[in-house]
Design brief:
This protein has 423 residues and is an all-alpha fold. The chain is built from 23 helices and no strands. The chain starts with a helix and ends in a 7-residue tail after the last helix.
Length: 423
């Protein structure tokens, strides 16, 4: 691949999927092998969010194959990225591929659909900036490009990640995307700009969109109050206005004072309290509990989840509680707070796991130690099972990253997966 890039990479989609040609995906030149790009790759996978194998088919595997091939080419032959860009531009000219602007705008619009999206988008954009600079330096060192050439090629290579994260979207969504981004522009303006926007937005659904965006952007209470007065009920959508406000305590108080339901839950049963715990925001958790949040609220039950949302959410551990969520995502101080406020220590989820098992799943040793100290001790067989499962997943992720097959895969697992050595 290094010696004959023009021959190997002449087909932009690779040798086809499935292919009889053996490809060494684990070679050090592949972008997936560069340590400084792994965080970006993990975030891309999270945003793409289509890796639930029971819910996908062969087209899913083809997309991932094409993505991997593009990263392989960008690692071995970055000069060919100019040809790849030219092909994308030609396709965009005949509406067969979205333009760069359309991709960027759709991605930004996606970020305003939920607080989870918004936080993830900002993290991703920051990582894109870091990764582009580091890849440019790599191209300078490895391929002797000038600083300007390396930066330009690195930008094109990182665009492979961005386009894959964004995924496909219908062309007829472009006008709506532009409308939402225009709302964003006006929400960022003055209070008078916002009043003008609200006066010209007659539909309740549109006013809710304006309010959600204003909450995500943490606009001042006067801005939020103006919109709340126009919206009516604050309990709407898969995640209500309260969810969008969680990064700003003042706005949370304002919404609760105006009647927002504190235990409003999304499609799989998650409430604002779970998010606050996931942020490890002790003050916000205290605020929500003081206002009456249910400290023992559960995710949707197993039977209901399987009936309604099996492939929509991909939730394996249904009926989880805030204490379980804390054991997996927060610190010891959060566990202490919840237990002090009345969390049920011995509750189990839909498959029989309690909070100590969640701490083991997340490999949060301090949480495991604390929960054992207060009497929550997982059975020895369950502890071994979870630790073994964690090790298996790490080995599987690494073998997938390297795309190992056949004998190479067998040898790798023989050395990587040794559950008998798990402490």
């Amino acid at each position: 691949m290094k010696r004959y890039p023009g021959l190997i990479f002449k087909d932009p989609d690779g040798p086809g999927y499935p292919s009889l040609i053996e490809i060494d995906w684990s070679c050090k030149e592949n972008l997936t092998s560069l340590p400084f790009l792994r965080t970006l790759a993990a975030l891309t996978k999270t945003i793409r969010s289509d890796d639930l194998s029971p819910c996908t088919g062969s087209i899913y595997r083809y997309w991932w194959y094409s993505y991997g091939w593009a990263l392989l080419e960008a690692g071995f032959a970055p000069g060919r990225l100019l040809e790849r860009r030219a092909r994308l531009q030609a396709l965009a000219a005949v509406d067969a591929q979205p333009t760069d602007t359309a991709v960027s705008e759709y991605f930004e619009r996606w970020s305003y659909e939920a607080l989870y999206n918004f936080d993830l988008y900002r993290t991703y954009k920051t990582e894109v900036g870091k990764a582009t600079s580091l890849l440019a330096r790599h191209y300078q060192r490895a391929f002797k490009y000038s600083e300007a050439e390396a930066r330009s090629l690195a930008t094109l290579a990182i665009d492979i990640y961005v386009r894959f994260a964004t995924g496909s979207f219908p062309r007829d969504s472009v006008p709506e995307t532009k409308r939402v981004l225009e709302i964003v522009r006006q929400v960022k303006g003055s209070l008078q700009d916002l009043r003008t926007l609200a006066d010209g937005t007659p539909g309740e659904e549109d006013l809710r969109t304006v309010l959600n965006i204003a909450l995500l952007l943490q606009r001042p209470p006067a801005y939020i109050a103006l919109l709340v007065d126009r919206v009516g009920s604050l309990d709407y959508g898969d995640e209500s206005a309260l969810f969008f406000a969680l990064r700003n305590h003042a706005n949370v108080r304002l919404l609760l004072d105006r009647g927002a339901t504190i235990d409003y839950q999304n499609g799989f049963g998650k409430t604002a309290l779970f998010y606050a715990i996931g942020f490890n925001d002790h003050k916000l958790v205290e605020l929500l509990l003081d206002r009456g949040a249910d400290i023992n609220h559960r995710y949707t039950s197993v039977s209901k989840k399987h009936e309604l949302f099996d492939c929509t959410y991909g939730i394996k551990h249904t009926a989880r509680t805030p204490l379980m969520h804390s054991a997996q995502h927060a610190d010891v101080a959060m566990l202490e707070l919840l237990l002090r406020r009345g969390a049920n220590l011995h509750d189990v989820d839909g498959i029989g796991y309690h909070a100590a098992a969640y701490a083991l799943l997340a490999e949060r040793r301090p949480n495991s130690v604390h929960l054992k100290s207060v009497g929550l001790i997982p059975p020895p067989n369950l502890e071994r099972e979870i630790k073994s499962s964690n090790l298996w997943q790490k080995c599987l992720d690494e073998s997938s990253r390297r795309r190992l097959k056949a004998e190479a895969l067998r040898q790798f697992f023989a050395t990587c997966y040794q559950p008998e050595k798990v402490d």
